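Forum > Structural Biology > Help requests

Title: Can anyone predict the 3D structure of MPN domain-containing protein?

Hi all, first post here. I have the sequence for MPN domain-containing protein but no way to get a structure on my laptop. I'd be grateful if someone could post the structure tokens.
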Amino acid sequence: MNSPVTVCNQAYLKIFFHAAKHPHRSVNGVLIGKLIDNTVVIEDAIPLLHHWTSLSPMMEIGLDLAGQYAESVKLQIVGYYQACERLHDTALAPVGERVAEKIRATFDKAIAFVINGETFGTGQPALIPYIPVGSSSWGPHPESGSAFSASSLFQLASPDIPSRALKLVQTDHIHQAFGDFDDHLEDVTIDWLRNAACLPVDV
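Reply #1:
Sure, ran it for you. Structure tokens for MPN domain-containing protein below:
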């Protein structure tokens, strides 16, 4: 996977809010976007789970609903993200590999990101990219140590979005209103597909 990848502000913020709301749990979700001039543009993130992070019926239902939503806004699922329960764990979990493989079956430039717990609260980009390294296994991208640097294939739409995300969490506590599919199952009024109320107007 050598195509450039751009992570838009809305997608980064939602990934950050999801992990910030559940700092001591594994969380996961999918990334939706499109291919523009061979660049994978990740426009949004849809948070799935923080309870049932295995490949369960709830995961399958969430993935199906996320796919339907993506189609409704003329996008598609292009990737997967996860945060691990332990701060120093940056491995893509087996369930993550399986979900990423499922996504790759319909989008051959699929990407996965694991949240880097060590840089998460520093205002630096906190995403480690994973790509396919075999028929069904995934590993860190060769640029994983320098992802989102000036010369990297991986770029943020706004370089300052990690520091903005950190401020929105630390100062405004905006992540507390963020909801994933697990939350929606407990309270159907939670708009987990959009989470529009959690996004600043200037995003």
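DSSP finds five helices and eight strands in the chain. The first strand starts at residue 5 and ends at 7.
Shout if anything looks off.
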